[in-house]
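> example.struct
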C-alpha cells in the first residue's frame, strides 16, 4: 500500500487532499470530470481541501479475500465538496473532524489509488 500525508502525488497525479475548482463559477468537486458540473467550463484549477467533517460511516465486514476486513468507509464533507473514502482506524465517528492520510490501493497490485481519512489533529487546521 502506498500513500503519505507529505503532499506527494497519490491519485492520478493529484494529491489526495486536492479538489477541482471552476475558474468561471467557483464550483468545487473531487472526482475527475471533463467539465464543470455546474456551468460546463472545460478548465479547472486545483485547491487544497484541508480539514473536513465525517458525515456518514459504515463498516464492511464481508470483503473479498484481498481486501482488508473490516473495511471502514465514510462520506466526508469539505465545505461543499463531498467524497467517499476509506477510514483509517476505529477512533473516527460521524461528526468528527477528518484529514487526508494519503491515497491507497484497495487491493494488492491495484494501480488505482483512493483517498483514506484519519482523525484530524490540531496541526491539521
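> example.seq
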Amino acid at each position: 500500500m502506498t500513500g503519505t500525508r507529505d503532499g506527494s502525488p497519490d491519485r492520478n497525479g493529484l494529491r489526495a487532499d486536492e479538489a477541482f475548482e471552476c475558474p468561471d463559477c467557483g464550483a468545487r468537486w473531487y472526482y475527475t470530470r471533463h467539465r464543470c458540473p455546474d456551468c460546463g467550463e472545460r478548465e479547472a484549477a486545483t485547491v487544497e481541501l484541508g480539514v473536513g467533517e465525517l458525515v456518514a460511516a459504515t463498516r464492511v465486514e464481508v470483503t473479498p479475500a484481498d481486501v482488508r476486513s473490516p473495511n471502514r468507509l465514510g462520506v466526508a464533507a469539505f465545505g461543499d465538496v463531498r467524497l467517499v473514502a476509506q477510514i483509517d482506524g476505529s477512533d473516527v465517528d460521524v461528526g468528527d473532524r477528518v484529514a487526508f492520510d494519503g491515497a491507497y490501493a484497495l487491493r494488492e497490485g491495484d494501480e488505482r489509488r483512493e483517498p483514506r481519512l484519519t482523525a484530524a489533529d490540531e496541526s491539521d487546521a
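> remarks
The beta strands are 18-21, 28-29, 45-48, 52-60, 71-78, 81-87, 97-104, 114-119.
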